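ARCHIVE CARD
CATEGORY: sequence design from structure
SOURCE FIELD: tokenized fold
FIELD CONTENT:
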């Protein structure tokens, strides 16, 4: 019996996928575990492995097409199986977003062609036989109406190369012709100054996700700096010990240290560590922290699960694995599902503070800036220290800004009081 292989649904916020390479063609024999196609969302690029065996009877879409989740992508079965129930639907569906875009583009092109013809005819009517020489330009006069039009369009009398009036007089048509020519020259010049770049399918998905986040939330960003002296000292100790005892300690980064403290702080503020619904929020007792990672294909946010309960070494091992698989494009949908909070670190970029965009349906996100050298007065004089700015973006709907400020204040306190013995157990 024939079976439809449908576009997978990955989480509540994913409404469609972008088909990547389709690995099979009609007539191919497949078995359980074979890869049928690759697909992309705003969160990942993934291979789809079939759980069924049979022959590929029909493929409804092409690489690059956008497919709504749970819509049939292809049909597997035995040769001769009835697939009319899907084929009938697919006839209408074949006019997919891609086809609709083509029709829309054709309509636009036809309209543009008509406008160009009309414009061309209009300009043709403006052509004249009189072409004053340079010495005669000084003798050009202009009719009152043409003068008014020239002033409104910003056309100078000296720029009019052809006149159609009696005794070298510039008419309204001459002003319009000059204006159109200048506009055409400007367009040609602009075309040489930029490169037109279409969004990739992943970029389109990210763009939709970002736009949706801003349109459907009440986002507020709170910023506060903290003294990162102890944090950086611990990082230096870890780096030294890693060289001395490679097999006994993980080379934890500053971001790993922050994730360690962040996870343990979030469980004391469950309203911050929450997911938002239409008129409710679910407060989590365990922190599953999504880590924003920039990859060649775009921005991805895989999850460090149970970050509030695992050791610093385990956090480091997991983040290294996630970063590697993100860069190689090997993340699975499961790697990016179930996060309760996100951290985005721009520490290596030189940015001190920024306003991160929420990762729905999460209630909050933490941005981490670069360490900046500052001076401060102490009893024994002025000292230099490293300051890092934290940016907490929160959704104002489930709780007020004061709650976010309390969380940020406590997180900073714990980061400033961090000790090597506390985190290396």
């Amino acid at each position: 019996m024939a079976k439809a292989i449908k576009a997978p649904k990955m989480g509540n916020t994913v409404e469609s996928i972008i088909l990547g390479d389709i690995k099979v063609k009609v007539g191919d024999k497949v078995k359980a575990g074979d890869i049928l196609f690759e697909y992309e969302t705003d969160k990942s690029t993934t291979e789809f492995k079939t759980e069924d065996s049979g022959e590929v009877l029909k493929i409804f879409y092409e690489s690059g097409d956008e497919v709504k989740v749970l819509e049939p992508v292809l049909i597997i079965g035995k040769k001769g199986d009835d697939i009319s129930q899907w084929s009938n639907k697919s006839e209408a569906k074949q006019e997919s977003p891609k086809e609709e875009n083509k029709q829309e583009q054709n309509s636009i092109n036809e309209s543009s062609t008509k406008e160009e013809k009309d414009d061309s005819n209009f300009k043709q009517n403006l052509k004249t036989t009189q072409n004053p020489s340079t010495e005669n330009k000084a003798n050009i006069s202009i009719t009152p109406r043409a003068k008014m039009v020239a002033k409104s369009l910003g056309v100078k009398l000296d720029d009019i190369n052809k006149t159609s009036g009696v005794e070298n007089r510039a008419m309204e048509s001459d002003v319009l012709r000059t204006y159109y020519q200048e506009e055409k020259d400007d367009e040609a010049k602009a075309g040489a100054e930029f490169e037109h770049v279409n969004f990739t399918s992943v970029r389109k998905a990210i763009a939709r996700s970002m736009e949706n986040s801003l349109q459907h939330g009440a986002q507020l960003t709170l910023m506060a700096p903290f003294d990162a002296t102890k944090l950086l000292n611990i990082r230096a100790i870890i780096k030294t010990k890693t060289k001395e005892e490679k097999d006994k300690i993980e080379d934890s980064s500053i971001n790993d240290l922050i994730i360690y403290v962040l996870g343990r702080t979030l469980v004391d503020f469950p309203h911050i560590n929450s997911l938002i619904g239409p008129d409710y929020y679910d407060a989590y007792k365990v922190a599953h922290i999504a880590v924003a990672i920039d990859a060649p294909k775009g921005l991805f946010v895989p999850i460090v699960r149970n970050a509030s309960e695992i050791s610093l070494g385990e956090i480091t091992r997991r983040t290294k694995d996630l970063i590697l698989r993100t860069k190689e494009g090997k993340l699975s949908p499961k790697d990016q599902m179930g996060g309760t909070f996100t951290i985005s670190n721009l520490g290596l970029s030189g940015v001190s503070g920024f306003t991160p965009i929420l990762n729905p349906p999460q209630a909050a996100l933490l941005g981490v800036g670069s360490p900046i050298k500052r001076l401060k007065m102490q009893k024994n004089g002025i000292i230099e220290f490293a300051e890092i700015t934290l940016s907490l973006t929160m959704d104002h709907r489930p709780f007020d800004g004061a709650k976010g400020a309390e969380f940020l204040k406590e997180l900073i306190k714990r980061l400033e009081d961090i000790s090597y013995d506390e985190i290396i157990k």
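CARD ANNOTATION: Residues 97-125 form the longest helix (29 residues). Confidence is low (pLDDT under 50) at residues 94-102, 121-135.
SHELF: design records, drawer C
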